[in-house]
Amino acid sequence: MDIISKFIKRYEEYELIRDNVAIGKPEGIPLTNILPHLSRFLPGVVKSKMYMVTAASGWSKTQFTKAIFVTGTIDWIDKHPNCDIDLKILYFALEESHDEFVDSLVIHYIQKEYGIYIPLRKLRGNSEIPLSIQELDLVKHVRPHIIDKYISKITFIDHEYDPDGMYAIASDYLNDLAKVTYENVVCNYMDENLEEKVYNKKVIKDVKYHNPNTHVIVIADHLNLMEHSNGLKYAMERWSSHYCKSIITKQWNWTVVNVVQQNMLSSEKAYDYKNQLNVDKTRPTTDGLGDSKIIGRDHHVIIGIYNPSHYATIGYYNDYNINYSKDGLYNYFRSATLLKNRLGDSGHEENLFFNGNACIFLPLPKDRDSKILMDLKNATVRYNDIQDEKYPYDPKFNTLNN
User: Fold this and answer.
1) Under the phi-then-psi rule, with left for phi > 0, alpha for psi from -120 to 50, and beta for the rest, what region is 338?
2) Long-range contacts: 266-271, Cβ < 8 Å, 24+?
3) Per residue, what are the HEC states of the chain?
4) Under a CB-based contact definition with an 8 Å cutoff, are residues 42 and 53 in contact?
5) Hey, CA dihedral for 376, 381, 384, 388, is it positive or negative?
6) How far from each other are the two terminal CA atoms of the chain, in whole angstroms?
7) What is the pLDDT along the chain (402 residues), one digit of tens a residue?
8) Contacts of 50 (CB under 8 A, 6+ apart)
9) In sequence order, which residues have a C-beta less than 8 Å from that of residue 148 and are 6 or more positions away?
C-alpha cells in the first residue's frame, strides 16, 4: 500500500473512531476515576504505548501500578460494559509473590465494595488477634467475586527474571489470543572485516486476534530485579528497548507498563550546607532512573510517585498537612507527576490519598480543611470489628462508592 492509500485509509478511520467514542467505546481505558487532574493531559491506558511508574524504594510504586493498571482498568470496564473491551493482563512480578498479590486484591475488594478495612497483618496471621468469624465469612464470601472480576483477567508470573524468558512467555500468551503469521525477510549487515553479509530473518507479518476487542496489558514490576548473564543494565535495556519497544507494542499492539526504581538519594545530597532540605532533589526524575537511564527514552509516559512524608522536616506539601499528627495525612499522602508525556503535556502533578495495603489511591479534595481530609482518612483506613447486627453486605458500608 502506497503512502497516499495509507493516508486515505487512516482518514476514513476518523469518523469510525468518533462514532465509537460517542457510544462509549474510547480508544483506550480512561483514568478519570483515579487521576481526574492528570486525565486532562493523559488519554488513559492506550494500546501500543509504553508507560513507566518510578519511585524510590518503599514509596508505593507497586501499589500505584496495581491501582491504575490492574484494578483501575478492570473497574472502569466493569462500569462501562458498552466498551466491549476484552482485557487481558500479563503480570510479571519480579518482587511480589503470588500470595502477596492475592492478599492485596482481597483487601482492596472488601474495602472498595463494603467500606471495611481488614489489616494485612490479620489476613496473613502476623497478628496475635485472629480474623473474627464474621471477617473470615466475608473473605470467603467475596472469593468468587474476586475470581470473576479480577483473577480471571490476570495471568500472574513470579518465577521469571530473564528478559528472554519473559518474552518467550509473552509470545506463548500471544499465540493463545491471536493467529500470528510470519514471513522471511532478507537482511544485510557488515561483519568484522567490513564485508557485507546477507541473512534471512523471520518476522511477524500479521497478528489477528480471535477477539478484535482484545486489549492486553503486560506489566513488569520491577525491572531493577531482572537477571541476565550480561548484567542488569543489559537485561533492562533488552526488555525495554528490544522487546517492548520494537515488538510487543509495535507489532503486537499491547500496552506495556514497566516499574523502575529511582536511584537512592543520600542524606548529604538532600540537604544543603545550611542543613535545609532541598525538596526538588527528593522528587523522582527521569535522570534518577536506577541502573539504566536510557530506557526512559523508550516510554511514552513516565509517572513519578512521591512520598514527601519520608522527609519529616517538610511538614506541608502542596498546602496539605502531611505531619505525623491527628490532623496530618502523614504516610497516607502521595503525589503522582507526569515526568514525561508524549501523549500530552508533562509536568502536571496530582495529590492523592493512599491506602497501601488496600492498593487504593483517591484524588484529594482541593479543600484542605482538616476535617474533610480526616473523614476521608477514617473512611478508608479505619478498622472496626464486624458485628452481627452490622453485617457488611448492607450498602451503607460502601463508603467509597456512595
Assistant:
1) beta
2) 270/311
3) CCHHHHHHHHHHHHHHHHHHHHCCCCCCECCCCCCCCHHHCCCCECCCCEEEEEECCCCCHHHHHHHHHCHHHHHHHHHCHHHCCEEEEEEEECCCCHHHHHHHHHHHHHHHHHCCCCCHHHHCCCCCCCCCHHHHHHHHHHHHHHHHHCHHHEEEECCCCCHHHHHHHHHHHHHHHEEEEEEEEEEEEECCCCCEEEEEEEEEEEEEECCCCEEEEEEEECHHHCCCCCCHHHHHHHHHHHHHHHHHCCCCCCEEEEEEEECCCCHHHHECCCCCECHHHCCCCCCCECCCCHHHHHCCEEEEEECHHHCCCCCEECCEECCCCCCCCHHHEEEEEEEEECCCCCCCEEEEEEECCCCEEEECCCCCCHHHHHHHHHHHHCCCCCCHHHCCCCHHHCCCCC
4) no
5) positive
6) 53
7) 678 888 888 888 888 888 888 888 888 899 888 898 999 999 899 999 999 999 998 899 999 999 999 999 999 999 998 899 999 999 999 999 999 999 999 999 998 888 888 888 899 999 888 898 999 999 999 999 999 999 999 999 999 999 999 999 999 999 999 999 988 888 777 777 777 877 787 788 899 999 999 999 999 999 999 999 999 999 999 999 999 999 999 999 999 999 999 987 644 567 776 777 778 788 999 998 978 889 999 999 999 999 988 886 678 888 898 888 777 888 889 999 999 999 999 999 999 999 888 888 988 888 777 777 777 776 665 544 333 333 333 333 333 433
8) 240, 244, 245, 249, 255, 256, 257, 258, 298, 299, 300, 301
9) none
Residue carrying the nine cell digits 481488614: 118
Structure-block grid coordinates of residue 250: 509495535
Which cell numbers in the block locate residue 63? 501499589
Q: Give the three cell numbers for residue 7.
A: 493516508
